[in-house]
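In the previous chapter we treated chains in isolation. Here, by contrast, the input contains two separate entities that must be folded as one system, with a combined length of 315 residues.
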Amino acid sequence: MVPGGKQRVEFDITIVNRSDDANSISRAELELRGQRLGRPFILRIPPMRDSTPRVLSIPLKIDGHQTVAGVIGFEYDRNLTGRDFLIDDDGLIIEDSHRTSYGISHSIMRDREIEK
Amino acid sequence: MRSKRRDILIDPLSIVQIVGDALVASVGVGHGKFIPLLIVDAGHRPEIVELIRIHEFLPSGDVECVWGQLKQRPGSVFLILSFIRPVVTQTLIEFDVRKYGGIVDKIIRAHGLYLQAGKLGDRLMNTPGAPRILMEIPQTDFDRTWESIWIKVLIQQFQEKGQRKDPKALALRLIEEWRRPDDLRMHEKLDTDTVLSDN
């Protein structure tokens, strides 16, 4: 039986817009990468809605030479991934209003914490 | 306007075959139009089964659709579906034009389809609770190319059945008759899904 319950993942991030022009984060996703029944499997989960001030609300405008900081959180039902999905890595994917994507691997973030 | 043709490399293993089809009309979906349902054999593509199941837990996803043909299979057209979210995967649905030309035409005219994973023998009537996803199939240059492909195949079929006298006129008439129910809409007072056909 697939275990029930919720899985919650949070990314505490700082984003700097170094250009003169305003930009925005148009999309943020939690990407789970792994294998399902021996085949590569990639799952993308949208962020949860949360009205607390520290949580960044997507889409988010960032004016030129401005910085935003906060948390992007994801919560998903464990039934979503199922028991056959072996997750090798997960990460945050952010897309700006120019449709440029940026990825941050969760495992790299954990490694950085250990280095501190 | 010129047709935008481009070559795409595809994995032959990503092709799925249709095992069942139907037309479904629901109030509030596609203005109540009849939308084709495809049941595909996804036995060798577990990620397609998962993609459909996972939609139960997440909001609507994104998919890019391209119609195409393979040189190795001239009698078929393919709908290339590149799923971007929630699951990243690609699949090709093969439509043998002789068998599924009518369904291709309905998909193009309805600008959408329901996709359900199944196995040989599955029909809408015996899998009423099975998960399925609704996809928008945008209008493309292929829509005009399609009509000439279908007419050519229908002419060939009429000729094979011994119909030598103006097979093109017969093909055009068949298409006109086939498209006649496309203007029907499910009205709000009928609050259940209606199945027009379940082949």
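Confidence is low (pLDDT under 50) at residues 111-116 of chain A. Strands of chain A lie at 6-16, 23-36, 39-45, 60-62, 67-77, 85-96, 101-105. Compare these points with the single-chain example from earlier in the chapter.
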